[in-house]
Design a protein that fits this description.
The protein is an alpha/beta fold. The chain folds into two domains: 144 residues, TPP-binding domain (Rossmann fold, 3-Layer(aba) Sandwich); 82 residues, SIR2/SIRT2 'Small Domain'. Helix content is 31%, strand content 18%. It has nine helices and nine strands. Helix 5 packs parallel to helix 9. It is elongated and about 55 Å long. The protein starts with 9 loop residues before the first strand and ends with a helix.
Length: 240
């Protein structure tokens, strides 16, 4: 791709691969350090759809209570830290769009972060439509801190639901000079289509990943390796 001259506005998409080295299981088997996907014990249809929640809310709430507790014990890794450094020092536009529902970007100090698939550490009240920071369990049906209704669910986008803030993401892509995808499978839409959108807009595209993703051929350049190595190296390059 050559030197990153003329780059002012950057959009970064991060996926499960950036958090795998922090010990957070990846969505699809084989991505985490254990080699087991997050859904080994449960089929996706049993825990990550609105239909599942309607059918067996206790199962779904227990599953997410477990994930919410686990994520609070994990720590950011050098890839998160590098992006936080870029966020702090980059003078141009920057948006970190993450498919991850952990808070490791924020705990590294990044502030220009958009969670398109929601967050483990939020609860969404389906009665009053507000979101509250939430670190404890939901299975006991605690009341909403805003309205008092016992109608809280995980603030996580399930299969069949629309990801959050898509208008903001596409607006950022339209003004971007560089689109970088980090640790994504290229299998989950609409995020998997961002690189094609970027290419159509004439944006330069770079993939940083452990292995080539399903959409790898769309990128101008792919750099392979663990996120904790390739991401800091790229950030060093960008910050000169």
């Amino acid at each position: 791709m050559g030197p990153m001259d003329g780059i002012r506005n950057i959009v970064i998409l991060t996926g499960a691969g950036i958090s795998a080295e922090s010990g957070i299981d990846t969505f699809r088997g084989g991505g985490g350090q254990s080699g087991l996907g997050l859904w080994e014990q449960h089929r996706v249809e049993d825990v990550a759809t609105p239909e599942a929640f309607a059918r067996d809310p206790n199962l779904v709430l227990r599953f997410y209570d477990m994930r919410r507790a686990a994520v609070q014990e994990k720590l950011p890794n050098p890839a998160h830290d590098a992006l936080a450094r870029l966020d702090a020092k980059w003078k141009g536009g920057l948006l970190i769009v993450t498919q991850n529902v952990d808070d490791l970007h924020e705990r590294s100090g990044a502030s220009r972060v958009l969670h398109m698939h929601g967050e483990h550490l939020n609860a969404w009240c389906t009665w009053c439509d507000t979101r509250s920071r939430w670190t404890g369990p939901l299975v006991e049906r605690p009341p909403c801190p805003v309205c008092g209704a016992c109608a809280l669910r995980p603030d996580v986008v399930w299969f069949g639901e629309m990801p959050y803030r898509m208008d903001e993401i596409y607006a950022a892509l339209r003004s971007a000079d560089l689109f970088v995808s980090i640790g994504t499978s290229g299998a989950v839409y609409p995020a998997a289509g961002f690189v094609q959108t970027a290419r159509d807009l004439g944006v330069r595209t770079l993939e940083l990943n452990l292995e080539r993703s399903q959409g790898s051929e769309w990128f101008h350049e792919t750099r392979l390796g663990p996120a904790s190595e390739v991401v800091p190296a790229w950030v060093d390059e960008m910050l000169g």
